[in-house]
């Protein structure tokens, strides 16, 4: 089954005092490129998480976001700089006596003083590893599911374009047969203008026609294009990573079309080549997003 490289997955786990949320998304990329954003206390898990993801995702730029909330993971402590607070209160009392001010010192005002330091401490890391990986695996599974759904749509669209290209290629093949006949007709028309010729060497005419036909022949290119189209269908039916193979075939198809275009002696063939190159470009854009 063809898989797209674009997708999104989300999963969460809620315990008695902890909530784990994992979001993962991917876009097309030539290789696997993983970016992980998580609390610092969990950074040591990045290597294992990357290996786990690569078991199911081989290509694509992957971004994973892991958040953990709750007392089961993070607790807060408040520390007070008592010496600094004593100095503040002493200065306030001195100012009140010196300037005959009314003392207005309340608990709420004390809380606004810059003498407190709040620290967060992450705990129970090892106990949460199983829940973290289980949640991550579920998010990855949902990401893969979306990639498979989009991959199926890409496959159908590409197969439709390949069928249309096959029909156009058949038309080119039929037109190429007319080219040989046109060579002979043009040669005879030109010879009719030379009245001094008493006789026409039929063997020579046929030799010239054969030479021109061989020079303009596109039979080999048409055969290779048909082979590429058949291989395209075959690869689309296979499982695994197929994007690079399809990208190579697209390049080869463009090369054959360029050759046909340069050899073309028929305006309709030239127009068909332009149409085919347009379709190949559309296929190439779709292939860029296939894993």
Structure description:
The protein is 58% helix and 16% strand. It has 8 helices and 6 strands; from the N terminus they run E-E-E-H-E-E-H-H-E-H-H-H-H-H. The mean pLDDT is 84. Helix 4 (129-191) packs antiparallel against helix 8 (267-287) and helix 7 runs antiparallel to helix 8.
Write the layout of secondary structure elements.
Elements: E1 7-14, E2 19-27, E3 32-37, H1 46-54, E4 60-69, E5 74-80, H2 82-98, H3 107-111, E6 116-122, H4 129-191, H5 202-216, H6 219-236, H7 243-263, H8 267-287
Helix pairs in contact: 4-5, 4-6, 4-8, 6-7, 7-8
Structure described in brief:
The protein is α+β, with helices and mostly antiparallel strands. The chain contains eight helices and six strands.
What proportion of the residues is helical, as a percent range?
55-70%
Strand content: 15-25%
What is the spatial order of strands in the main beta sheet? 1-2-4-3
Structural class: alpha+beta
The biggest sheet, with number of strands, parallel, antiparallel or mixed sense and barrel status, is: 4 strands, mixed
The dominant shape is elongated
Rg, please?
A: 37 Å
- Oligomeric assembly: single chain
The overall strand count is: 6
Which key features would you list for this structure?
single chain, 291 residues, alpha+beta, Ribosomal Protein S5, domain 2, 3 domains, 4-stranded mixed beta sheet, 16% strand
